[in-house]
Amino acid sequence: MDRIIRFCQLCSTKRQAEVRSTYGESITAFEKISDGHKTIESGAFLKIAGKPAVIGQVKYFTVPLVVRQEGAYASGRVHLQLLPAEVYNETNLHTFSLRRVDCILTDEQVQSYTTKELGKLPSVLRIEPIKLTTGKTTVKAGEAIPESSVSIVNGHGAKLTKAFFNGEKQSLTVVQRLWLLPPADDPLREHDSMTNEQIREGDGKENARKGKGRSRKGRKANH
Predict the structure, then answer these.
(1) 43, 111, 126, 135 — which has fewest CB within 10 A?
(2) CA–CA gap between residue 86 and residue 92 (Å, rounded)
(3) Contact at 8 Å (CB) between 85 and 64?
(4) Angstrom distance (rounded) from CA 100 to CA 122
(5) By C-alpha distance, which of 69, 66, 74, 93 is closest to 35?
(6) How far apart are alpha carbons 100 and 54 in whole angstroms?
(7) Contact of 120 with 84, CB cutoff 8 Å
(8) pLDDT tens digits along 156-195
(9) SS3 of 168, please?
């Protein structure tokens, strides 16, 4: 859409105030636009040309003028909530020139696009060798720690080093921790293995002794 476009249906007073508080007083928001061949309304799904192309749902349209009626204006912009929300977050709002509007999408096309984009997100950790996935692998002193690798994989099975979160490409890291345990007959290990039940039992006896002491003091005061 690269011609002068007709802007229709002014947004509510509340929406105008919100838009002007964000983008400045010299702006007006509309619910609908038309170029004489097709009409786009708030709530429609649009594809925006670019590298990469993006898809979003229309929130409103704006012109850099203060106007009080519908009309044909230049330099209009569209304000979109980009999809999928799981990638860009539900409160995101991005602005594009109307010249970058490629086409209007159907619900089926949006669903297909969303499924594809969600498949690019981190999905699982791939750990090799597989025996390490149990989390119970023990290496005795003197033995070599087995060579291992951990990969972050998306829903399509591709390895990732970066991924989009909140509209930004971020690096992904995996932290591996090795625990050095004392020998089985080490007193420290026996101490660390004390169960919560034993601890609770000890606390209960201590509280009972304190309670008896308080009762005796109370009787003496009454006496």
Answers:
(1) 135
(2) 11
(3) no
(4) 30
(5) 74
(6) 10
(7) no
(8) 778 876 776 655 677 777 777 777 767 666 655 555 544 4
(9) strand
pTM for the predicted model, two decimal places: 0.64
Segment 198-223 shows an average pLDDT of 48
Helix (H, G, I), strand (E, B) or coil at 208: helix
Domain positions in the chain: 5-118, 122-134+146-178, 187-222
User: Residue 196 half-sphere exposure, CB side, CA atoms within 13 Å?
Assistant: 0
CA distance 106 to 47: 11
DSSP E strand stretches across 74-216? 77-82, 94-97, 101-105, 122-128, 149-154, 159-160, 162-165, 168-171
pLDDT of residue 201: 53
Beta bridge partners of 169: 164
